[in-house]
């Protein structure tokens, strides 16, 4: 009887575990297996086991392009997250003002970029804003007497253009999370601080930030993961059907995609995917430990 009781939860969980194994675990294991071979377009069925050669090529050879893509990805993630959190914080502070009218209207309008499908947003910015001939930005520049700028032709303008679009799409979520965290803080803390002569910055540093840190930490971590593995913005803005728009901007995700579906080097692409997987796992372990310690404190 006891054995049946022990087996019952497993029997109920078995369908879900099988599905998880097929959809998540098996692809990871198979990708790891391919990463140890020379599988490519010319060695599709007669590929050979080559050990860690793909990993050494990605990590140790400067001409492989992976380290440059990794640096770009880390820079992309860091800048996006810092700007996103800071800008969202001050906008959310503005929503906390009691004399601000039309808060519901502003918050409703703010949700449109986040709710809009990513492909539609990217197409809108690529054609309607960044286009050299009839984009909004170039029309403004020409009206002011400046020349036209191809925002997607070189790496630095393309990087900034992609980052601006990512901020436009991601800011609403972060603003709403921070706004909710700010609303949960007891107003009496601020009243006591004002009686002690605390100013704007003092109240934010000593009351607001410590009080909301544990609440928004999961949102920041989740957004960091999403930003790190961002693909559609960089790919659809700077590349089209495998061809470059002029910029050679590469993140680790677009690097893996190009090696798999353009260069058809499946072994190298799989090795890069496994490296990305372990980087995300390590970051996840550190952040989860940090969140647990914060909650215990």
From TrEMBL:
Pfam families: BPD_transp_1. Residues 70-287 form the ABC transmembrane type-1 domain. It is a multi-pass membrane protein. Its main location: membrane. PROSITE patterns: ABC_TM1. It comes from the Bacteria. Keywords: Cell membrane, Membrane, Transmembrane, Transmembrane helix, Transport. Signal peptide: none annotated. It is found in: Cell membrane. The chain crosses the membrane at residues 12-36, 66-93, 105-127, 158-178, 266-286. InterPro entries: MalF_N, MetI-like, MetI-like_sf. Belongs to the binding-protein-dependent transport system permease family. This is Sugar ABC transporter permease.
């Amino acid at each position: 009887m006891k054995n049946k009781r022990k087996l019952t939860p497993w029997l109920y969980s078995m369908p879900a575990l099988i599905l998880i194994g097929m959809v998540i675990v098996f692809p990871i294991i198979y990708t790891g297996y391919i990463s140890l071979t020379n599988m490519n377009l010319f060695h599709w069925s007669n590929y050979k086991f080559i050990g860690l050669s793909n990993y050494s090529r990605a990590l140790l050879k400067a001409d492989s392009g992976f380290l440059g893509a990794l640096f770009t990805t880390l820079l992309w993630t860091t800048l996006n997250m810092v700007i996103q959190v800071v800008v969202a914080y001050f906008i959310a502070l503005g929503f906390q003002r009691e004399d601000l009218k039309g808060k519901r209207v502003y918050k409703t309008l703010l949700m449109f970029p986040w709710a809009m499908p990513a492909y539609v947003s990217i197409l809108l910015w690529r054609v309607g804003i960044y286009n050299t001939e009839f984009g909004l930005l170039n029309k403004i520049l020409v009206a002011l007497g400046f020349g036209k700028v191809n925002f997607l032709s070189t790496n630095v303008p393309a990087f900034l253009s992609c980052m601006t679009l990512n901020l436009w799409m991601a800011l609403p979520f972060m603003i709403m999370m921070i706004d909710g965290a700010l609303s949960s803080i007891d107003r009496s803390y601020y009243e006591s601080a004002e009686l002690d002569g605390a100013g704007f910055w003092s109240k934010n540093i000593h009351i607001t930030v410590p009080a909301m840190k544990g609440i928004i930490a999961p949102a920041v971590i989740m957004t960091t993961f999403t930003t790190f593995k961002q693909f559609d913005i960089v790919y659809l803005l700077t590349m089209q059907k495998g061809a470059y728009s002029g910029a050679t901007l590469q993140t680790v995700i677009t690097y893996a995609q190009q090696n798999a579906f353009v260069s058809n080097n499946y072994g190298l692409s799989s090795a890069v995917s496994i490296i990305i997987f372990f980087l995300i796992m390590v970051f996840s372990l550190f952040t989860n430990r940090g969140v647990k310690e914060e909650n215990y404190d």
